[in-house]
Amino acid sequence: DTAVSQTPKYLVTQMGNDKSIKCEQNLGHDTMYWYKQDSKKFLKIMFSYNNKELIINETVPNRFSPKSPDKAHLNLHINSLELGDSAVYFCASSHHRTPRGNSPLHFGNGTRLTVT
Amino acid sequence: SQELEQSPQSLIVQEGKNLTINCTSSKTLYGLYWYKQKYGEGLIFLMMLQKGGEEKSHEKITAKLDEKKQQSSLHITASQPSHAGIYLCGADGNNDMRFGAGTRLTVKP
Description:
The structure holds 2 protein chains of 2 kinds.
Chain A: E1 4-7, E2 10-13, E3 19-25, E4 31-37, E5 43-50, E6 53-57, E7 64-70, E8 73-78, E9 87-94, E10 106-107, E11 111-115
Parallel strand pairs in A: 2-11
Antiparallel strand pairs in A: 1-3, 3-8, 4-5, 4-9, 5-6, 7-8, 9-10, 9-11
Chain B: E1 4-7, E2 10-14, E3 19-25, E4 32-37, E5 43-49, E6 55-58, E7 61-66, E8 71-76, E9 85-92, E10 97-99, E11 103-108
């Protein structure tokens, strides 16, 4: 009964390939996120979707494209993978938040992407 | 954008000792969240603080929010090996949550 689940857990691929990471939440949340955690464990927001609409798109290369078929799913597709894309990617969800939001984020267990 | 500074970056304590982790914001804090991360796992939500002076506890972990100083502290009493991990503070950004760089806690048995 995992609340936020993402697959795969590990992803090893070569430079130039295209890959996808899937995320699903069963918490009834209407906002979902993708975060990237680098080797120094710094967690950085990439995208945020509210009810299937993109509301945050940080400075992320165009090679990264999120897709939200419904509000319970937010997948991340990455084209032309580069060495620097190696990191742990976390999916999260929450109730709708505002700048004074009071809803914590619930995280998946992460996908460790290694680009060789 | 919100900047959160955590201190210390890492901490090694003997089992049974108390410890404190601090989180300081460069901007006004409306909500402050504490998470714990174990290796290979996601972030586990510990607690949320919203009002100045608010204090919450979860088992042996207590967190406080000093709104005026834009700071929060996380205190662990009588630490155990199960407390080991990375503790991250998060704060409300614009429709998202921003995080500090984390504090890596090691508890020696």
